[in-house]
């Protein structure tokens, strides 16, 4: 299994989008290449525990839904971070999974919490995280890391909106080195 990526975005849906590193480059890494990777990631982010058991058809559906959501969230998030309209088919994917999940969920408590069942413990939580982001105040803080080969998305929660990099240790450092080189 490939190691899991750092979670730097501050949002569950964006963390899923960031499970591909260096997208569309020769060193692209897909951290969710298999169903087992999806389960490991879902445990890492706290959506499920060791009691998560699915039938083989459910496993296939979960894997397909996670990849569809990842593609949709990446496309919609990239568009919004670059001041473009998110593509409608991508918004539809997020809405459809959220709707399927909601039909099977229970709602309880004050303030209320949605409790998803089966595969929707993973995909329902992600789709609703994306929906909440799309409809919420933090959407204006959605940014994409600037280098062309990075593509990672994150929420800039700094007071003055000054966060530029996915991770100071990777892209931030690369940028510093390039500036040094340029100024020499
Ligand atoms: Zn980056």
Describe what you observe in this structure.
- The protein is mostly helical.
- It has a single domain (12-182), classed as Jann2411-like domain (Jann2411-like fold, Orthogonal Bundle).
- The protein is built from 6 helices and 6 strands.
- The protein has helices at residues 12-17, 35-44, 56-81, 88-104, 120-135, 168-183, and strands at residues 20-21, 29-30, 106-108, 113-115, 142-144, 153-155.
- The strands form 3 sheets. Strands 1-2 form a two-stranded antiparallel sheet.
- A hairpin with a 7-residue loop joins strand 1 and strand 2 (29-30).
- Helix 4 (88-104) packs across helix 5 (120-135).
- The longest helix has 26 residues, at 56-81.
- The chain is globular, with a radius of gyration of 17 Å.
- The termini are far apart.
- The mean pLDDT is 93.
Structural class: mainly alpha
Q: What is the level 1 CATH name?
A: Mainly Alpha
Pattern of helices and strands: HEEHHHEEHEEH
Q: What percentage of the residues does DSSP assign to strands (E)?
A: 5-15%
Query: What is the arithmetic mean of pLDDT?
Result: 93
Euclidean distance between termini CA atoms: 42 Å
- The portion of residues assigned to helices is 40-55%
Number of domains: 1
The appropriate CATH architecture is Orthogonal Bundle
Main β-sheet description: 2 strands, antiparallel
How do the strands and helices of this protein lay out in sequence?
Elements: H1 12-17, E1 20-21, E2 29-30, H2 35-44, H3 56-81, H4 88-104, E3 106-108, E4 113-115, H5 120-135, E5 142-144, E6 153-155, H6 168-183
Antiparallel strand pairs: 1-2, 3-4, 5-6
Helix pairs in contact: 3-4, 3-5, 4-5
């Amino acid at each position: 299994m490939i190691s899991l990526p750092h979670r730097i975005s501050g949002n569950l849906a964006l963390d899923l989008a960031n499970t591909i590193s260096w997208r569309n480059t020769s060193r692209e890494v897909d951290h969710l290449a298999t169903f087992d990777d999806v389960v490991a990631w879902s445990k890492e982010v706290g959506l499920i525990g060791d009691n998560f058991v699915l039938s083989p058809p459910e496993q296939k559906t979960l894997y397909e839904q996670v990849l569809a959501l990842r593609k949709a969230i990446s496309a919609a998030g990239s568009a919004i971070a670059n001041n473009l309209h998110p593509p409608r088919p991508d918004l539809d994917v997020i809405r459809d999974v959220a709707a399927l999940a909601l039909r099977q969920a229970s709602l309880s408590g004050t303030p209320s919490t949605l409790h998803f069942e089966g595969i929707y413990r993973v995909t329902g939580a992600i789709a609703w995280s994306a929906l909440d982001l799309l409809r919420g105040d933090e959407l204006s803080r959605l940014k994409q890391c600037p280098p062309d080969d990075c593509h990672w998305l994150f929420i800039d929660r700094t007071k003055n909106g000054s966060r530029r990099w996915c991770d100071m240790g990777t892209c931030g450092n690369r940028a510093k080195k390039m500036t040094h080189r340029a100024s020499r």
